[in-house]
Design goal:
The protein is globular and about 50 Å long. The chain has a five-stranded parallel sheet. The protein has a three-stranded mixed sheet with strand order 5-7-6, covered by helices on one side. The protein has helices at residues 4-12, 44-57, 83-92, 127-143, 160-168, 218-231, 238-245, 252-286, and strands at residues 29-38, 62-65, 96-99, 150-151, 173-175, 183-184, 190-192, 205-211. Helix 2 packs parallel to helix 6 and helix 4 crosses helix 5. The protein is α/β, with parallel strands linked by helices. It binds zinc ion.
Length: 287
């Protein structure tokens, strides 16, 4: 029988994590960086600065590319004609290119299996509808000579049908989930969790920081450079994570951690914060 303590022990020292330098007595996190909403009309001026920082520190991010963007919120700059050249160039440099949905258009309020938002392009749709979207998205990648290295769902929302289709369509990695460690399923599908939306010191684990640069200012860009400098010794990339965790399976402790992070971060804390604002707000004004 596996006791909770045993699960702890395994979690603190995942069996195949040596490749990441995560040995015993090294309770430090490793960090992946992910940029979402990469498309021809993104914020290019800021992007060039981001790429310069990535180059300077040798960081290989996950880039979540929208195959056929139809979301007006992602139309920030004029479309760049060389967009797919750039994507191919990033992939050639070792960046992980993820397929970020199909058109980035939400069609319902289904939170899917991750449960952090209430909007989806995929979750709750029929298998046929989901398959059609995925195949159209993948066709764009194929036409452009881009390999789909991973899946990043718009708004983190997808369901078991989506996962089954990703498996059938040969997408090897899912970047999502609130657990602490990556794990692979029996057939090789690798789950790399994505738990952070900013850089912060964390204990042992593989922490993916998800960033959206469309709204960034020069100041935010400078912050990003500072963060890469500070966290550089602990940065990793998908290739190393895939090697280190190919044999690790999901544990009950993984599920418990994901569930507790979801409950605290996305159910309880927002309600408390809202209640606090209601109570403290008027007082703050009165003072
Ligand atoms: Zn997105």
């Amino acid at each position: 029988m596996i006791t909770e303590l045993d699960q702890h022990r395994e979690t603190e020292n995942p069996p195949n994590a040596e490749g990441l330098g995560l040995g015993q007595g090294m309770p430090e996190g490793r960090y992946l960086v992910r940029f979402d909403d990469i498309c021809p009309t993104m914020n290019w001026a800021i992007w060039e600065g981001i790429e310069a920082h990535l180059e300077r520190f040798g960081v290989k991010p996950i880039l979540a590319v929208v195959p056929d963007n139809q979301d007006p919120k992602l139309r920030v700059d004029a479309p760049r004609a060389d967009f797919w050249d750039r994507v191919r160039g990033w992939q050639a440099k070792g960046y992980t290119i993820a397929i970020h949905g199909f058109q980035h258009v939400y069609v319902n309020k289904n939170p899917g299996i991750i449960g952090v938002t209430w909007q989806s392009e995929f979750a709750g749709l029929s298998r046929a509808e989901q398959e059609a979207k995925l195949r159209k998205g993948l066709a764009v990648f194929q036409e452009q000579g881009v390999r789909p290295d991973a899946w990043v769902a718009p708004s983190h929302s997808f369901d078991h049908t989506t996962v089954q289709l990703l498996r059938e369509l040969g997408i090897p990695v899912i970047s999502d989930g609130l657990g602490t460690w990556p794990y692979a399923e029996e057939d090789g599908l690798l789950w790399i969790p994505q738990q952070l939306w900013t850089f912060e010191p964390k204990p042992a684990g593989v922490w993916t920081v998800c960033l959206h640069h469309n709204s960034w200012t020069e100041r935010r860009l400078a912050w990003f450079g500072e963060m890469l400098e500070r966290y550089n010794p602990w940065m990793t990339e998908v290739e190393s994570v895939a090697r280190a965790f190919a044999e690790r399976r999901q544990t009950g402790w993984d599920r418990w951690q994901a569930k507790s992070r979801l409950l605290w971060g996305f159910r309880i804390r927002p309600v408390l914060a809202q209640a606090y604002r209601r109570v403290a707000g008027p007082r703050a004004v009165a003072e």
